[in-house]
Each structure stands twice: as C-alpha cells, then as structure tokens.
Amino acid sequence: MENEIKTHYNYQEIITWIEQKGIELYGTHFKILEVDYPIIYKLIAYFLKDEPTCFQYNINLNKGILLSGPIGCGKTSIMNIMKYLTPTEHKFFVKPCRDISFEFIQDGYQIIHKYSKGKLYEFEPKTICFDDLGTESNLKYYGNECNVMAEILLSRYDVYIAKRIQTHITTNLSASEIETQYGNRVRSRMRQMLNLIAYDKTTSDKR
Questions:
Q1: Taking the CB of residue 112, how many other CB atoms lie within 10 A of it?
Q2: Would you state the pLDDT for residue 203?
Q3: Sheet order of strands, 64-68 included
Q4: CA 39, CA 197: separation in Å to the nearest integer?
Q5: Residues in Cβ contact with 161 at an 8 Å cutoff, skipping those fewer than 6 apart
Q6: If DSSP states are collapsed to H, E and C, what string results for the chain?
Q7: What is the spatial distance between Cα 44 and Cα 36, in angstroms, rounded to a whole number?
Q8: Do strands 144-146 and 64-68 pair parallel, antiparallel, or not at all (unpaired)?
Q9: Per-residue model confidence as pLDDT tens digits over 153-206
Q10: pLDDT tens sequence across 136-145
C-alpha cells in the first residue's frame, strides 16, 4: 500500500512517531495495528495537508473529518494524537459531546454559541473535534428540550461557509442513525462540510 502513495512524506516513519506519541499519552499497550493503516494513512495525509495523497484518497482539504467506527476502535485516541501532528494554523481541540450536554444543563443556550460562533471575547471561532457524537442526549433547559449538538452543527456549518473554519467529529453512528437522531438537515450539512473516514464495522474493540 505504501508504494502506491507518491509523496515526500515517509508514512511508515510517521506511524512510528504516532505509536510513540500514543505510548506517551496512553501507556505501553498503545499500538497501531496494520489492519488500520489505510485509515491512519488517510488521517496523516489530511492533517499534514499532503495534497497529492489526499487527491488519491479523494479527500477534500477544505472540509473537516468525520471519523466513524465501532466502539473501542481507537477514534478518540487517534484524533487526540493528530492534534500534535497537524501544523499550528490547523490546530484543533477535542471536546466530548457528553461534556457539552452537561455544560448546556448548567449554562443554557450560550453553550451553543460558545461551540459554534466562539466565546464573546474571541474574534474567531476555533476548529473543534466533537468527540463521540451520539452519546449526548436531548436535554431540557428550564423545561425546553433542545438537541444541543444538532444546533451546534447547524451553526458550525454557517461558520464553515462564511469563514472556512473546519469541524471534526468522531462517532459510532451510521449515516442513517445520524439522520434519525439529528434530522436530514444536519446530515446534509455534515456531508457538505466533512470527509467521511470510516473504520470497518468489524474492527475489534482495542480497549
């Protein structure tokens, strides 16, 4: 597979670096399995902005990443490591969707603004990876039910169109499950602003 990639980057060396970073962050058991190389190569190409390789993989560098796969396949870990691989101007932070839902219970609708348009004193919205989309639930704030992540994603789409600020997402949900939980409009917007990179449904739980 490596021979097919025509690039000035040595992907095997980068995988070794990722493994070392993973061991540093998660412990000595961390390992990138060879079966996952196709997924990892795509993520490396995207986060290093390796245009020729992204072109081969049909990855649009203007869009964000939707990394999907079964529970325990390593989506969150690998996105946390990619934070360190990506150039400074494309840095992002990882935010669990469940944490956002708890913040919403506490602080209400300003949380939607915080994660879509940015805080009031920040001039620019930031690139965010929303981790584990689908683990949060619809929540009530003073009796009003709100699909918090649906609202945030719709707002992030507007920011993407206006300013090209990217959004990344990890999820265990399939496309049809995303549509069921968040509606057709959100699914359509996600398709427009995200590259889908998916682990095989049979990928084993690495935990």
A1: 20
A2: 66
A3: 93-96, 128-133, 167-171, 64-68, 194-198
A4: 7
A5: none
A6: CHHHCCCCCCHHHHHHHHHHHHHHHHCCCCCCCHHHHHHHHHHHHHHCCCHHHHHHHCCCCCCEEEEECCCCCCHHHHHHHHHHHCCHHHCCEEEEHHHHHHHHHHHCCHHHHHHHCCCCCCCCCCCEEEEEECCCCCEEECCEEECHHHHHHHHHHHHHHHHCCCEEEEECCCHHHHHHHHCHHHHHHHHHHEEEEECCCCCCCCC
A7: 12
A8: unpaired
A9: 999 999 999 989 999 999 999 888 999 889 999 999 999 999 999 997 766 656
A10: 776 555 555 6
CA angle 78, 13, 7 (to 5 degrees): 95
| Paired sense of beta strands 64-68 and 128-133, if any | unpaired
Per the listing, tokens 């981790």 go with: 131
- Token reading at 86: 């990506």
% of the chain surpassing 90 pLDDT: 63
Rounded CA-CA distance 160/113 in Å is: 15
Mean pLDDT for 108-130 is 78
Alpha-carbon gap, residue 133 to 150, rounded angstroms:
10
- Whole-number pLDDT of residue 25: 95
Please give the Cα distance from 56 to 167 (Å, whole number).
Answer: 22
What number of residues does the chain have? 207
Interatomic CA distance for residues 113 and 56, integer angstroms: 37
